[in-house]
Structure formats: C-alpha cells, structure tokens
Write a structure and sequence with these properties.
With about 500 residues, the protein is mainly alpha-helical. The chain folds into 2 domains: about 1-375, no CATH class; about 390-505. It contains 21 helices and 5 strands. It has a 5-stranded mixed beta sheet, with helices on both faces. β4 and β5 form a beta hairpin.
C-alpha cells in the first residue's frame, strides 16, 4: 500500500505540472521561431492562396479551384487575414500558427483529465516536439486547425457535464458541432464519437429526455455534413485523379493479398512514426501501450473507450472504402488521440506493473522523445518536405540578364506567380513565361521550351524541385545545350542553360 501511494503521489507531483508548463513555453517559442523564418510558399499553399485572393467570401463555401480543398470557415478567416495584413508568408501562416499553439494548451488540458500529471507532461512532449505538428502549424493549410478542433471537441465532452444535460446544452452542442464542421471536415468523425459518448452515458443512466436531445443534435450534424459532402466534396472525393493519387494511402483492410498485408503494415507503422517515432523501440512501445490503454478503457471507462476509439475506427472505415486518405497531413487530427491512448496505457503500466518494468518502459519513452527532438533539429533552420523555391528565385533575380527568359513549368508556376504577382513585395523579372497545366500532355514542358528556341531564345532560366532536375538535364542534353549557371538549394535547383546558335531557330 505504501509503495502504491508513493507511486501515485510521485506521478501527480506539482513538479510534473511545472515541467509541462515549461514544455508549453518551449513549444510556443519553437513554433514562433519557425513562423518568423518565413519558409517559402509551396505549390498547394500557392494554389490555395490564389483561391482566397480571387474568390468572394460566399464563393469560399463552394468548390475551390486549382485542385484545392479547405473548410469554408477556415477559408473565410484566411481571406480576412490577407485583406487585413497583406499577402505574405507571415500572413499566410498566422492563423495555422495560432491553431498550432492552441492545440498545445487544449491537448494538455485534456491530458490532465485523462492521465496522471507525469503521463500528461510526457504526452505533451510528443505534441510539442514531433516534427509533423510544427510543420503544419506553420503552413497555409487547414491541418493544424483539424487537430485543434479534434482535441477541443474531446475536451468539451469532458467539461460540458452530461449529468445535468438539458435543452440549452443540446443547443450549445448543435452550435459547436456546426462550427466544427465549418472549420474541419474530419471533425464529423469526432462529433460521432462525442455523440456516442453522451448516448452511452444517458443510456446507462436511463435519461430518455437527454437521449432524444443528443439524438436530435447528432441528426442535425449529420444533415449538415451530408449536404456539404453531396454538393461540394463528393465529386472530388470520387474523381479518378484523386483516387489514383491516394491509392497507397487508403487503408488496406481487410488485406486480401500479400501486397495488401505489406501495405497495411506500412500504414500502421506510418501512423506510429507520425505519433511518437520511426524506431523499432518507438513501434514496440506504441503498440504495447496502445493495446494496454484500450483494454484499460474498455474495462474501466467504456464511455471514454467510445470517445477515443470511435474516431479512429470511423476514419479507418472511411479510408478502407476509399473516402478518406491516410496520407500524413490528413491524419494529423487523429495523432493527438493516438498519443493519448498510448499514454493511457503508459500510465496504467506505471500504476500497476512491477517497478523494474515501469522503469524500463519509462526509459524507453525518454529515449524515444530524445530521438524525436534530434530528428527535429530545433537549433537549425526548419526544413519540411518541400523545396525552398524562394532561394532559387533570389538567385535568378540576382543573376538574370534582361535578355534572358525565365521559364517556369506548370509544377512551379503557382509558386512563382505568387511571388511575382500576388506578394506584397513582388519579384520584378523581365521575360517571365509562366506555363499552366494542360491535361494529358506528357511533354508539355519540353514542347514549350522548344517553342521558345524556335523564337530565337537561346538562354533560358529554369526553376524546379529535385525530381524535375533530372528532366531538366535530359532535355538540355537533347538540345545539345550547356548549363551556364546553377544553384542547388534545399530540395531544388535554379539554372541557366544555353543552346548553340545553330539550334536557336529550327
């Protein structure tokens, strides 16, 4: 008994709360620093921003152009930010930054309700320092908002008391759910779990009036989501282009072949990687703790079992039906739930397992977060998966002569258009040729460059990411050209090539 009391007191010691507050401060400073770095806008951000600059507020509630999607209320706020603070990198990433910071506070507040102080502080470390959370807190996309909405809904389910549920609280939840759907489409999975959580409690207490009220609220949420899905999302979700692009990210369940089984393994390990780390140690700890956490909730808190497991089950079901992709950015909203379940299991181990085993597990999690922080490289310039095209633009602006053409292929054009036409301080570049996408032409870039050669243009600047560098090189060689100037920057290249005078006109 003494040992158990000592462990319980240690796990809830005030020093754990102080450590968590310091972690929150570091998380905020880290995100603020990355935001101030003003990373280059990438393709999807540029296309999304162009929608915000071209469309009216009302039009943001319908289909977006340039193969983009974003929730309408998120889009409204983004358009307002651009109109108020100008078109630049800081404005583009300001609202996602606030959402990313808000996620830290919401997550810790929820974790304190589900975990001991020690486990809550430990779980917070992964949300603060996992690279994916920092990345999407500083991108002009809705994924940080998705995560914040998810955790906020779960937190509200624990603060809006079901024991005194009444009509006013039902109306409040109807409004909260409507706002959540407007800001985050995957919130429908979380709202379903919140509804199931309340239904379980009301069924258990035989509160028929509350059952009818929460049932009506759930019906209201479902109708609202169904209308938006049918009129806005369905066409894009079922398009061949989107289905093919996300084919490897649809949940491979049930696995009907060895390739399906291999893909399923990759998908599960990918989720673990995003949640707590890529190492074998992280995978073992995550699977063990997750299973213990789920079993613990099923045995002791079936309401919370539904609350935390149902969003995962619904998301994976939608993915198996090819309606939801498990690509990293789209599962960001689920990662806080996975982390909570892992640390519910961790907390259970600390409280019930023999002390030596608890110490080993704790050391394992310490090693895992150290690896995550090393992957993050917090004292270096933050890098994500996209090229810093602005570095290439700076080089071209500095080196380009007025008689040289700057040609952008369709994969780079939206970014260059942002920096040359939309930005508050645009790049001024002569002889700029922006190529837009034309469906089904596999030689679009090459044909356009040959057309420029036929017009007598011999010196042409190109800008691209790493995958396009090889295609640049092959084309230049096919034209017997020569690279005159080149800069290789993070995940990209800017180069000037020249073709022989005899090839300038065909």
């Amino acid at each position: 008994m003494i040992k158990k009391e000592l462990i319980k007191n240690g796990l809830n010691h005030s020093i754990c709360h102080i450590f968590a507050l310091l972690t929150l401060l570091l998380g905020i400073l880290l995100r603020g620093n990355v935001w101030l770095q003003q990373r280059s806008i990438f393709l999807d951000e540029a296309n999304l921003i162009q929608n915000y600059l071209e469309k009216s507020y009302a039009e943001l509630f319908g289909h977006l152009d340039y193969q983009q999607y974003a929730p309408p209320l998120f889009s409204v706020i983004m358009k307002f930010v651009f109109q108020t603070f100008g078109v630049n990198e800081l404005s583009a990433k300001a609202f996602p930054l606030l959402c990313g910071i808000g996620l830290l506070f919401a997550f810790y507040s929820l974790a304190q309700r589900l975990l001991s102080r020690f486990a809550a502080a430990f779980a917070l470390l992964f949300v603060c320092f996992d690279k994916i959370f920092i990345d999407y807190a500083t991108e002009c996309k809705q994924y940080a908002t998705d995560a914040l909405i998810t955790v906020t809904l779960l937190l509200l389910s624990q603060t809006i008391d079901f024991k005194s549920f009444n009509r006013q609280k039902a109306i409040l939840w109807a409004l909260i759910g409507s706002l959540a759907i407007g800001f985050s489409m995957p919130s429908i999975f979380v709202l379903a779990s919140v509804g199931a959580y309340y239904i379980y409690q009301f069924w258990h207490t035989k509160n028929k009036a509350a059952l009818w009220q929460i049932g009506s609220v759930g019906g209201f949420w479902l109708v609202q989501f169904a209308v938006y899905f049918l009129f806005v999302l369905k066409t894009d979700a079922q398009s061949d282009n989107l289905q093919n692009y996300h084919l490897q990210y649809f949940f491979a369940f049930p696995p009907l072949s060895m390739s399906d089984l291999s893909l399923l393994k990759t998908q599960v390990l990918g989720i673990i990687d995003r949640a707590i780390g890529i190492t074998v140690l992280a995978a073992v700890l995550a699977i063990l703790s997750f299973l213990i956490g789920v079993i613990h909730l099923w045995r002791t808190q079936k309401g919370r079992f539904l609350l935390l497991l149902l969003p995962i089950v619904l998301t994976l079901t939608a993915s198996a039906l090819h309606y939801y992709s498990l690509i990293a950015r789209l599962i960001l909203f689920l990662l806080p739930i996975f982390i909570l379940l892992i640390f519910i299991g961790f907390d259970t181990i600390l409280k019930k397992a023999p002390l030596p085993f608890s110490v080993i597990i704790t050391i394992g999690f310490v090693a895992t977060i150290i690896v995550q922080i090393q992957v993050l490289k917090p004292f270096e310039y933050f890098r994500n998966d996209y090229s810093e095209l602005r570095d290439g633009l700076d080089f071209i602006k500095k080196e380009k002569r007025s008689d040289e053409v700057f040609f952008t292929s369709f994969g780079v054009t939206p970014v260059v258009r942002f920096y040359t036409q939309f930005h508050d301080h645009p790049y001024e570049l002569d002889k700029l040729v922006l190529q837009d996408y034309v469906c089904c032409d596999p030689h679009l870039m090459e044909n356009a460059l040959i057309a420029l050669h036929q017009k007598g243009e011999r010196r042409i600047w190109l800008l691209g990411d790493q995958p396009t560098y090889e295609s640049f090189t092959k084309f230049i060689e096919s034209q017997h050209g020569m690279v005159v100037k080149k800069l290789e920057f993070y995940r990209g290249v800017a180069l000037l090539y020249e073709i022989p005078l005899s090839n300038a006109k065909y």
